[in-house]
Amino acid sequence: MRFEELAKASGLPEEQYSRTLMSLLTGKAIDICIQLPAHELDNYSNVKEALLRQYGATQDTYRKKFYTERPRQEDDPLIFISNMTIWFDRWISLSKIENSYENLREHVIIDAITHAHSEDIQSFIIERQPKDIQTLTQIVRQYRAAYPNKPIKQSAEENFICYTKETRTPRFSRPEKKPICTNCNFKGHYASQCKTRDIECSYCHLKGHYANECRKKQNNLSDRSKEKQASRYQPQSTSNQNYGNQNKFYNRKPRSEHTTMTIVTKSKGLEYYPGLVGNQKVEVIRDTGSTSVVVHSKFVKTHQYTGKYVAATAFNGTVSNLPVAEINITTPFYSGDVEALVSDNLPVNLLIGNIKGVRDCTQRDLQDWSKAIKVSQECNAVITRSMTKEQVESDNLQNESNSNQQNDNPTKETTDQETTNQNEMTSNSNIPPEFNNEEFKEEQKKDPTLSRLYKKAQTNINPESNNEPYLDNGMLMKRSKNKNKIIEQIVVPQTYRKTIIESGHSKPFSGHMAVSRTKKRILQHFYWPSITKDVKKFVSTCHICQMKGPKGRHTQAPLQTVELTDKPFQKVAIDIIGPIPIESARKHKYILTLVDTCTRWPEAIPLVNITAIDITRALSEIFSRTGLPEVILSDRGGQFTAEITKAFMDMYKIRMKFTTAYHPQSNGLCERMNSSLKQIISKIANDNPQNWDLLIPAALFAYRESQQETTET
């Protein structure tokens, strides 16, 4: 193909193609031409066809390459795309079809139909070489009439060839039939070769396994067990169903492709940690074999159910439909909103699986968490008792005052008072217990940062609108929408903001989360205009987060600009390409490259080894043509930093400069030239890969002749 392009470019007549080509051939190729009849030597088409056939370059060869070749990780995408284009063109060219869409379409359809059949019928079709679909139909009918009992469908493993990245050799072939052992029923050996033929189970007295592997024993033990066994959940489908079906079981084999989640049996050997589901205390267990969260139904409220169901498959194949609920959890492993499966038969309160965002806690972290929760519970118990006493006294005084002010309609007044108290308690239930409602309302009015929201709330005609402030019994509130849920937020004045942030970040149940999670937790109940800025400032100055946070993250030093040179070969950059996967016929595996930083002139020399002696010899060869540079830039390879190389540079008064370790971009000019040179060599050496080292001068010529974008020369 390349010979034809060069011949056309040079204006060579077609009748001279054959003689010119034979004058360039050597070795096996010229022997093939000599064996041809004399009258065919002047016919270029006959010579070309004989050479391609002898070297296996048939249309079937290129068709297989086109369909089976895969891109390699180390190659540039352009190389693979170019190869695919070349293989397709050669496949179609050797098929000798006319250059039209209809002929190409018919050829591709015939090829697909042919290779969809079994190998026998493929050979039958290829021998007859059908030119159109009608002829192909007649050939297939003839075969089926002659061999009615033979299969015509291609098996899944037939003609399946996959090439490895390094060797490009077939990795899979048609599997051979393996013997089956009649003792252990495993493939690959006979019963006389079976290693388990002398093993006998002490439980069932059968040969081939030990007692601890006996399935009969395991089944009997599982039947006698009264504890709740481990279950495996596989999310399979979701649908809107009634909650009454959640305990319905039916037998079904689990599908292996679905993710699993295991609920362990509650036993004394497991570790349980305190946590929260909403505001309810729970026992939490971490299961690394799970992929979901499971919670007991007693901790889930009716409005938290999403209406979805998940088919949960047990280890023995039984399946139960479990409802899904959205809950808020606070645990040492995960804190925040999460979708959980709800079960009545869960042996623990809450199970945390391998969900997104779960943390891996050390034993020390879990101990600190448990201690902090214990101290917090003791403090909360004292605060709760004192606050309960004050609340009872306040309620008694309020009841006495209300009884003295009753009029002729006591029932209505009582109802109105109860409704007012209930609304106030509902709207302000998110205020921390240490805050006083009346003082909190006064601070809202006096806070200058809330004046705009307060005025807007006083003029708000529709309190039900989202993202708008409103007044609820004198309390400044804000209603927001988050994931189809309406959240009522209390607007916090400056006096109480630090306390709110501490509760959402520094408390034991808060877990010292990052800025985003802390902010989301606070926004579930509270709001103020500068909440993002305040939370970020508080978290960044948290003493515990600074001590326990990740260490060793240092910013990278800024890169400096490379000094420019105005003299050719005053400064050069060198690098090494290799090892190249295909060793040349002269044992070359590496290429030493050099590029002038001023003129961008490239040099390249193939090498067998890359020792310091080989490098200095190659540099001497280059410098004999270009002259000695003042500075050489290279990476920190051992061959460049060796004492021999240093002595060589000192002898010629050359200063060596090295790039920063693991930063090849410091020598980007040479690296870019290496990439271009590798692409050029891989393309021009496609048909003769063993002689790629002989094509380096041609590659350098092509690179030097192209215009440089930086120098425009």
UniProtKB/TrEMBL annotation:
InterPro entries tied to this protein: Integrase_cat-core, Integrase_H2C2, RNaseH-like_sf, RNaseH_sf, SCAN_sf, Znf_CCHC, Znf_CCHC_sf
Biased composition (Basic and acidic residues): 438-449
Compositional bias per record (Polar residues), positions renumbered to this chain: 231-249
Region (Disordered): 219-258, 390-450
PROSITE patterns: INTEGRASE (PS50994)
Superkingdom, taxonomy of origin: Eukaryota
SUPFAM superfamilies: Retrovirus capsid dimerization domain-like (SSF47353), Retrovirus zinc finger-like domains (SSF57756), Ribonuclease H-like (SSF53098)
Pfam families: Integrase_H2C2, rve
Residue ranges of domain Integrase catalytic in the record: 564-713
Regions of compositional bias (Low complexity) in chain numbering: 394-409, 417-426
UniProt GO MF annotations: nucleic acid binding; zinc ion binding
GO biological process, one term: DNA integration
Entry protein name: Uncharacterized protein LOC129928378
